[in-house]
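WARN retry 2 of 3 for item q-0093 after timeout on previous attempt; input resubmitted unchanged.
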Amino acid sequence: MRSDESPLVQGGLIIQNRDRLMQGSRNKYWAFALRAITALCYAILALPLLYGLWLTVRCFGMDYFSIPSHSMEPTLYPGDKVVVNKLIMGARIYTDLHFNLEGVELKCFRTKGFRRIRHNDMVVFNFPFHDGKIKFVINNVFCKRVVALPGDSIWTVGGYYKNNNYQGLLGIESSQRKFAQMPDTLFTKEAFAALPYDMEHVPSTIKNMHAVYVPHKGDVVRLTPFEAAYYRMILEWETGKKITWDWQTQSVFADGKRLFRHTFAHDYYFMAGDNVADSNDSRYWGLVPEEYIVGVVGYVYHGKE
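OK item q-0093 returned
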């Protein structure tokens, strides 16, 4: 080989090596770009799946809610979070999704759960009473403690809850003891009165509440003016008729026609706040239909307070 050809050959080798390096760099770049695009496509495809999984868990498994008030102190404080386990009593599945802020008729069914609600369970439920009627307003929810189940009779004596079917403590004993020691004069007349708000015929207060039967589905209850006054919204919801009564004749009427008894079509529950001295609960507005219960509280995350 001629010596003057060596630089040319060496230059050719340098150019070839440079081309190989550039080609290798381009290949790495496109390989990286391809991997990035593939990952992005997987992420885009995964988002609807993850959202669907999130909705499925919220619908069938569990959901969480924030506590806005002091009504469940000292168990729950404003800012606390509660996780509702819908598997315990079964998930509520809507069959009609047409909701509005004025309230609608709730149409739903419930999946099979692990057990029934028990005394002292904390539950989250949709508040059922709006404009003097039972109506469903989505996302209008309360968190309270169940102190009476279907088939129980519930009353209060000196601020303490009493239940004919449960001999243990209902709620928080320290809160009820504190409430019992409070003078009645600390409360306004409106805040101290309890359903059915007729002191002339039913002297019932939040501290000494008249005994109330909590209906079980299928129960046949004889109606007097007391039952008509206490169950009025329930009776009007179940019968679709206006309920009136006459204390003097001890008569009850549905759309003006005499009504002697009623067969209840739903199970009901009595809900109470642990802060008995300052809780807007069933003492004021009555019983909650089972269909309105979201689920049982399974976990509590306490906030800063």
